[in-house]
Amino acid sequence: MKAVVISKLLKTIDELEVDLNAPEPELKENQVLVEIKAAALNYFDILQFAGVVIAVHPTVNNKFKPGDKVFGFGHGSFAERVATNIENVLLIPNGMSFEEASGLFITCPTSYTALVVSANLQKDEWCLVHAAAGGVGIAAVQIAKALGAKVIATSGSKDKLAIAKNYGADFGVNYKDKDWQKQVLNITGGHGVDVVYDPVGLVQASLKFIEVWNGLFKLFAEKKLKPVIYKNVYYGLHNVKHGLKAIANRETYGKVVVIPNGGRESKI
Protein backbone atom coordinates (compact mmCIF):
# COMPACT_ATOMS: atom_id res chain seq x y z
CA MET A 1 0.00 0.00 0.00
CA LYS A 2 1.15 3.54 -0.73
CA ALA A 3 1.07 6.02 2.15
CA VAL A 4 2.78 9.17 3.37
CA VAL A 5 4.86 7.94 6.30
CA ILE A 6 6.97 9.96 8.74
CA SER A 7 9.65 7.79 10.34
CA LYS A 8 11.99 10.53 11.54
CA LEU A 9 11.95 14.17 12.59
CA LEU A 10 11.56 16.35 9.50
CA LYS A 11 12.98 19.84 9.15
CA THR A 12 10.84 20.89 6.18
CA ILE A 13 7.67 19.83 4.39
CA ASP A 14 9.81 18.98 1.34
CA GLU A 15 11.20 15.98 3.24
CA LEU A 16 7.82 14.21 3.27
CA GLU A 17 8.05 10.90 1.44
CA VAL A 18 5.64 8.29 0.09
CA ASP A 19 6.24 4.73 1.28
CA LEU A 20 5.35 2.39 -1.60
CA ASN A 21 5.21 -0.61 0.74
CA ALA A 22 3.47 0.77 3.82
CA PRO A 23 1.76 -1.82 6.06
CA GLU A 24 -1.93 -2.42 5.47
CA PRO A 25 -4.20 -1.02 8.23
CA GLU A 26 -5.43 -3.63 10.71
CA LEU A 27 -9.23 -3.85 11.01
CA LYS A 28 -10.20 -3.89 14.70
CA GLU A 29 -13.47 -4.09 16.63
CA ASN A 30 -16.05 -1.44 15.77
CA GLN A 31 -14.12 -0.38 12.67
CA VAL A 32 -14.52 -0.18 8.90
CA LEU A 33 -11.81 -0.35 6.27
CA VAL A 34 -12.11 2.40 3.66
CA GLU A 35 -10.50 2.76 0.25
CA ILE A 36 -9.65 6.46 0.16
CA LYS A 37 -10.78 8.38 -2.91
CA ALA A 38 -9.91 11.87 -1.59
CA ALA A 39 -8.25 13.29 1.52
CA ALA A 40 -8.43 16.84 2.87
CA LEU A 41 -5.39 18.74 4.10
CA ASN A 42 -5.39 20.74 7.34
CA TYR A 43 -3.23 22.98 9.48
CA PHE A 44 -3.37 20.41 12.27
CA ASP A 45 -3.18 16.63 12.45
CA ILE A 46 -6.79 15.54 12.05
CA LEU A 47 -6.87 13.73 8.74
CA GLN A 48 -10.13 13.77 6.83
CA PHE A 49 -11.13 11.56 3.92
CA ALA A 50 -13.89 10.30 1.67
CA GLY A 51 -14.02 6.88 0.08
CA VAL A 52 -15.66 3.49 -0.22
CA VAL A 53 -16.06 0.90 2.54
CA ILE A 54 -14.28 -2.31 1.47
CA ALA A 55 -14.52 -4.32 4.72
CA VAL A 56 -16.30 -4.18 8.07
CA HIS A 57 -15.52 -5.85 11.39
CA PRO A 58 -18.20 -8.34 12.56
CA THR A 59 -18.93 -6.10 15.56
CA VAL A 60 -20.21 -3.27 13.33
CA ASN A 61 -23.73 -4.81 13.26
CA ASN A 62 -24.81 -3.82 9.74
CA LYS A 63 -24.42 -0.07 10.27
CA PHE A 64 -22.11 -0.01 7.24
CA LYS A 65 -21.47 -2.49 4.46
CA PRO A 66 -18.90 -2.90 1.69
CA GLY A 67 -19.65 -0.49 -1.14
CA ASP A 68 -20.98 2.30 1.10
CA LYS A 69 -19.62 5.72 0.16
CA VAL A 70 -18.51 7.50 3.33
CA PHE A 71 -16.61 10.49 4.70
CA GLY A 72 -14.91 10.89 8.05
CA PHE A 73 -11.55 11.14 9.74
CA GLY A 74 -8.82 8.81 10.89
CA HIS A 75 -5.09 9.06 11.44
CA GLY A 76 -3.31 7.77 8.37
CA SER A 77 -5.59 9.23 5.71
CA PHE A 78 -2.74 10.20 3.39
CA ALA A 79 -2.83 6.64 2.11
CA GLU A 80 -4.71 4.31 -0.19
CA ARG A 81 -6.68 2.75 2.67
CA VAL A 82 -7.52 3.54 6.30
CA ALA A 83 -9.22 1.71 9.18
CA THR A 84 -11.27 3.88 11.53
CA ASN A 85 -14.02 3.58 14.15
CA ILE A 86 -17.61 3.68 12.87
CA GLU A 87 -18.38 6.78 14.95
CA ASN A 88 -15.82 8.60 12.80
CA VAL A 89 -17.63 8.00 9.49
CA LEU A 90 -20.94 9.00 7.90
CA LEU A 91 -22.62 8.29 4.57
CA ILE A 92 -21.91 10.87 1.86
CA PRO A 93 -25.01 12.92 0.93
CA ASN A 94 -26.45 12.15 -2.50
CA GLY A 95 -25.01 14.21 -5.34
CA MET A 96 -21.79 15.10 -3.52
CA SER A 97 -18.39 14.13 -4.93
CA PHE A 98 -15.63 12.45 -2.95
CA GLU A 99 -13.59 15.64 -3.23
CA GLU A 100 -16.39 17.75 -1.76
CA ALA A 101 -17.10 15.26 1.02
CA SER A 102 -13.48 14.73 2.05
CA GLY A 103 -13.32 17.92 4.12
CA LEU A 104 -16.78 17.84 5.71
CA PHE A 105 -16.17 16.07 8.99
CA ILE A 106 -14.41 18.96 10.73
CA THR A 107 -15.30 22.19 8.92
CA CYS A 108 -19.08 22.19 8.70
CA PRO A 109 -19.94 20.90 12.21
CA THR A 110 -17.45 23.37 13.71
CA SER A 111 -19.21 26.30 12.04
CA TYR A 112 -22.74 24.99 12.66
CA THR A 113 -22.06 24.38 16.36
CA ALA A 114 -20.65 27.86 16.82
CA LEU A 115 -23.45 29.73 15.06
CA VAL A 116 -26.52 27.60 15.81
CA VAL A 117 -25.86 25.63 19.01
CA SER A 118 -23.67 28.14 20.87
CA ALA A 119 -24.50 31.61 19.51
CA ASN A 120 -28.14 30.97 18.48
CA LEU A 121 -27.64 33.34 15.54
CA GLN A 122 -30.95 34.84 14.39
CA LYS A 123 -32.31 36.39 11.21
CA ASP A 124 -31.18 40.00 10.60
CA GLU A 125 -28.46 39.84 13.27
CA TRP A 126 -24.94 40.97 12.38
CA CYS A 127 -22.35 38.18 12.20
CA LEU A 128 -18.62 38.85 11.87
CA VAL A 129 -16.74 35.86 10.39
CA HIS A 130 -12.96 35.89 10.80
CA ALA A 131 -10.75 34.05 8.28
CA ALA A 132 -13.82 33.82 6.08
CA ALA A 133 -12.12 32.19 3.08
CA GLY A 134 -10.73 29.25 5.04
CA GLY A 135 -12.39 25.86 5.33
CA VAL A 136 -14.43 26.55 8.47
CA GLY A 137 -14.82 30.25 7.70
CA ILE A 138 -16.41 29.79 4.29
CA ALA A 139 -18.79 27.22 5.79
CA ALA A 140 -19.69 29.73 8.50
CA VAL A 141 -20.48 32.39 5.90
CA GLN A 142 -22.91 30.07 4.12
CA ILE A 143 -24.56 28.87 7.33
CA ALA A 144 -24.98 32.42 8.64
CA LYS A 145 -26.62 33.47 5.37
CA ALA A 146 -28.91 30.42 5.45
CA LEU A 147 -30.03 31.61 8.90
CA GLY A 148 -30.84 35.05 7.46
CA ALA A 149 -28.02 36.94 9.17
CA LYS A 150 -26.08 39.90 7.76
CA VAL A 151 -22.51 38.71 7.30
CA ILE A 152 -19.27 40.68 7.47
CA ALA A 153 -16.26 38.65 6.35
CA THR A 154 -12.64 39.34 7.25
CA SER A 155 -9.57 38.12 5.40
CA GLY A 156 -6.08 39.30 4.57
CA SER A 157 -6.43 39.85 0.83
CA LYS A 158 -8.85 41.27 -1.73
CA ASP A 159 -8.99 37.96 -3.60
CA LYS A 160 -10.06 36.01 -0.51
CA LEU A 161 -12.64 38.65 0.43
CA ALA A 162 -14.05 38.30 -3.09
CA ILE A 163 -14.34 34.54 -2.56
CA ALA A 164 -16.16 35.07 0.76
CA LYS A 165 -18.60 37.46 -0.94
CA ASN A 166 -19.13 34.96 -3.73
CA TYR A 167 -20.39 32.49 -1.12
CA GLY A 168 -22.74 34.91 0.58
CA ALA A 169 -20.88 37.49 2.67
CA ASP A 170 -22.57 40.90 2.50
CA PHE A 171 -19.45 42.90 3.31
CA GLY A 172 -15.71 42.30 3.37
CA VAL A 173 -13.05 43.87 5.59
CA ASN A 174 -9.29 43.37 5.36
CA TYR A 175 -8.05 42.61 8.87
CA LYS A 176 -4.64 44.02 7.90
CA ASP A 177 -6.16 47.51 7.77
CA LYS A 178 -5.37 49.42 10.95
CA ASP A 179 -8.92 50.72 11.14
CA TRP A 180 -10.70 47.42 10.37
CA GLN A 181 -12.67 47.57 13.63
CA LYS A 182 -13.89 51.07 12.76
CA GLN A 183 -14.90 49.81 9.32
CA VAL A 184 -17.02 47.08 10.92
CA LEU A 185 -18.68 49.62 13.20
CA ASN A 186 -19.47 51.88 10.24
CA ILE A 187 -20.93 48.98 8.23
CA THR A 188 -23.33 48.19 11.07
CA GLY A 189 -24.36 51.83 11.43
CA GLY A 190 -22.74 52.04 14.85
CA HIS A 191 -24.63 49.01 16.15
CA GLY A 192 -21.68 46.64 16.22
CA VAL A 193 -21.98 42.91 15.58
CA ASP A 194 -24.19 40.46 17.45
CA VAL A 195 -22.01 37.39 16.88
CA VAL A 196 -18.28 37.10 16.27
CA TYR A 197 -17.20 33.82 14.70
CA ASP A 198 -13.70 32.60 15.59
CA PRO A 199 -13.22 28.83 15.17
CA VAL A 200 -10.29 28.35 17.55
CA GLY A 201 -11.09 25.72 20.18
CA LEU A 202 -14.45 24.66 18.74
CA VAL A 203 -13.48 21.58 16.76
CA GLN A 204 -13.70 18.81 19.37
CA ALA A 205 -16.88 20.15 20.97
CA SER A 206 -18.61 20.41 17.61
CA LEU A 207 -18.28 16.71 16.85
CA LYS A 208 -20.33 15.62 19.88
CA PHE A 209 -23.75 16.88 18.79
CA ILE A 210 -25.82 14.54 16.60
CA GLU A 211 -28.28 17.38 15.99
CA VAL A 212 -25.45 19.24 14.32
CA TRP A 213 -25.29 16.66 11.54
CA ASN A 214 -29.08 16.57 11.22
CA GLY A 215 -29.09 20.33 10.67
CA LEU A 216 -26.19 20.19 8.23
CA PHE A 217 -27.72 17.46 6.08
CA LYS A 218 -30.89 19.56 5.88
CA LEU A 219 -28.87 22.54 4.60
CA PHE A 220 -27.10 20.32 2.05
CA ALA A 221 -30.43 18.98 0.79
CA GLU A 222 -31.82 22.51 0.50
CA LYS A 223 -28.70 23.60 -1.46
CA LYS A 224 -28.02 26.32 1.13
CA LEU A 225 -24.62 24.89 2.04
CA LYS A 226 -22.00 23.62 -0.39
CA PRO A 227 -18.47 22.36 0.30
CA VAL A 228 -15.85 24.65 -1.22
CA ILE A 229 -12.76 23.05 -2.75
CA TYR A 230 -9.55 24.96 -3.53
CA LYS A 231 -9.02 25.33 -7.29
CA ASN A 232 -5.84 23.21 -7.29
CA VAL A 233 -6.67 19.58 -6.49
CA TYR A 234 -3.47 17.61 -5.87
CA TYR A 235 -3.25 14.24 -7.65
CA GLY A 236 -1.02 11.56 -6.12
CA LEU A 237 0.30 11.22 -2.57
CA HIS A 238 3.65 12.65 -3.66
CA ASN A 239 1.87 16.01 -3.98
CA VAL A 240 0.73 16.13 -0.33
CA LYS A 241 3.81 18.24 0.44
CA HIS A 242 2.83 20.79 -2.22
CA GLY A 243 -0.69 21.11 -0.81
CA LEU A 244 0.64 21.59 2.71
CA LYS A 245 3.07 24.26 1.49
CA ALA A 246 0.23 26.10 -0.24
CA ILE A 247 -1.71 26.12 3.04
CA ALA A 248 1.36 27.29 4.99
CA ASN A 249 1.85 30.12 2.49
CA ARG A 250 -1.81 31.16 2.84
CA GLU A 251 -2.40 30.70 -0.87
CA THR A 252 -5.54 28.60 -0.48
CA TYR A 253 -9.23 28.97 0.27
CA GLY A 254 -11.89 26.45 1.26
CA LYS A 255 -10.54 22.91 1.58
CA VAL A 256 -7.37 21.62 -0.03
CA VAL A 257 -7.77 18.08 -1.36
CA VAL A 258 -5.41 15.31 -2.50
CA ILE A 259 -6.49 12.33 -4.64
CA PRO A 260 -4.27 9.38 -3.61
CA ASN A 261 -4.44 7.56 -6.95
CA GLY A 262 -5.32 10.41 -9.32
CA GLY A 263 -8.39 10.52 -11.53
CA ARG A 264 -11.28 12.83 -10.72
CA GLU A 265 -14.23 11.00 -9.15
CA SER A 266 -17.79 11.51 -10.39
CA LYS A 267 -20.66 12.51 -8.15
CA ILE A 268 -22.59 9.77 -6.40
The CATH superfamily of the largest domain is known as Medium-chain alcohol dehydrogenases, catalytic domain
Q: Note the beta-strand portion.
A: 15-25%
Reported by name, the CATH topology of the largest domain is Quinone Oxidoreductase, Chain A, domain 1
Helical content band: 25-40%
Give the second-level CATH assignment, the architecture of the largest domain.
Alpha-Beta Complex
**CATH class designation of the largest domain:** Alpha Beta
How would you characterize this protein structure?
By secondary structure, the chain is of the alpha/beta class. The chain folds into 2 domains: 3-103 and 227-259, Medium-chain alcohol dehydrogenases, catalytic domain (Quinone Oxidoreductase, Chain A, domain 1, Alpha-Beta Complex), CATH 3.90.180.10; 107-206, Rossmann fold, CATH 3.40.50. 27% of the residues lie in helices and 22% in strands. It has helices at residues 98-101, 104-118, 135-146, 158-166, 180-187, 203-206, 210-221, 240-248, and strands spanning 3-4, 18-19, 31-41, 48-56, 69-73, 81-85, 89-91, 126-129, 150-155, 171-174, 195-197, 234-235, 256-259. Strands 3, 4, 5, 6, 7, 12 and 13 form a 7-stranded mixed beta sheet that branches. Strands 10-9-8-11 form a 4-stranded parallel beta sheet, sandwiched between helices. Strand 12 (234-235), helix 8 and strand 13 (256-259) form a beta-alpha-beta unit. It is globular and about 60 Å long. The model is unreliable at 200-209 and 264-268 (pLDDT under 50).
